[in-house]
Amino acid sequence: MSHRVNRLAAALVLAGCANLAHAAGFALIEQNASGLGNAYAGQAAAATDASTIFFNPAGMTYLPDRQGVAAGHLIKPQAEFTGTVTPAIGGGNGGDAGGLALVPNAYFAFRLTPDVHLGVGMNAPFGLKTEYDATWKGRTQAVKSELKTINLNPSIAWKASESLSLGAGVSIQYAEATLTNSAGGAGLATVKGDDYGWGYNLGALWQASEATRIGLAYRSEVEQTLAGDVGFSTVASLDGPVNAGITLPDSASLSLFHKLSPKWDLLADVTWTGWSDFKELRIVRNSGAVLAVTPENWDDSYRYSLGANYHLNDKLTLRGGFAFDETPVSDASRTARIPDEDRTWIAFGAQYRLSRQSAINVGYAHLFVKDARINKTEDSYLPPQPNPPTPVTLSGTYKASVDILSAQLTLNF
Predict the structure, then answer these.
(1) Contact 326, 24 (CB under 8 A)
(2) Contacts of 237 by beta carbon, 8 Å cutoff, 6+ apart
(3) The pTM is what?
(4) What CATH code is assigned to 2-412?
């Protein structure tokens, strides 16, 4: 049964619910509503509001003396499987594996001296939720996956010269995950675990000309060791503590903001994410016994985006954007928990200035997800035995899409 615990713990760490929804793998790029309308193009250079703490802390030098931002995102992924399982164990195709989620963010930035700004952000850089019907044909590989993170990000920015700003921050990150699936004769298997980790982010912002800014930003890896328990609903003797070390990936962004005219802004971005850290996943019991080593073999991925703003008048700005987001998951590595594929973003949004001190931002994006092929074999414990393991192969296609609706309030003090 230890091999089965390995599969469960692996899925705990890589809970693939989020990768149906947004940035590469299971990252969340929805860190403000002001950038959603541009498909998050140019966010390391735009310095639109205090959410720059996440995208490029150097951008705080372009903000008013004190500013607060609160945003919320309704994210609805849809993912429907069609295919077969061998050997046949009955059940349907699982229904819509996507679920509606609310992702919040909040930021506050203030000027400490004429050239130094401080700020803090709270957000969720990874996670979402997916759930299949409990009796679907792939239930031995996945039923429910849920991953939640909370990230606290205190930051500092320094205006080094009239054209150059530098920034840095620390990330204190909490992760919590829950996984369930059918373990055959052992009943419903549930894994829960959590941990804290920390990392950092760096940024530079260059005012190349009066109309052009170029931003470069980096977010470090965050190491986590999710510690928790595995439990089986009908064979309690198999329960016990487990842990799995994982390194959440680093990323780097190069962004452009260019004012074409008093009415038009152009934004562009390329972001690299280091998902190739997922070479293997080593699972151990708290006793130190190694359960197994699971190959992952993910690849680094890139995200490309282009956006524009149109300043209709002093109060209203309209936004649009397009992005292409590569998957880090190859066809050979795809699982029912991580049915990820390339995504194409189409987005639009608006900002309305209520007064000199306040503004509302709204945005909407639709993600067209490429059909994902799966042909995954995993050992499962089917009745009447729980031993020896029975290889179960899930083969078919996922059809998926994502809708994102965001709103944000910005206040200057």
Answers:
(1) yes
(2) none
(3) 0.90
(4) 2.40.160.60
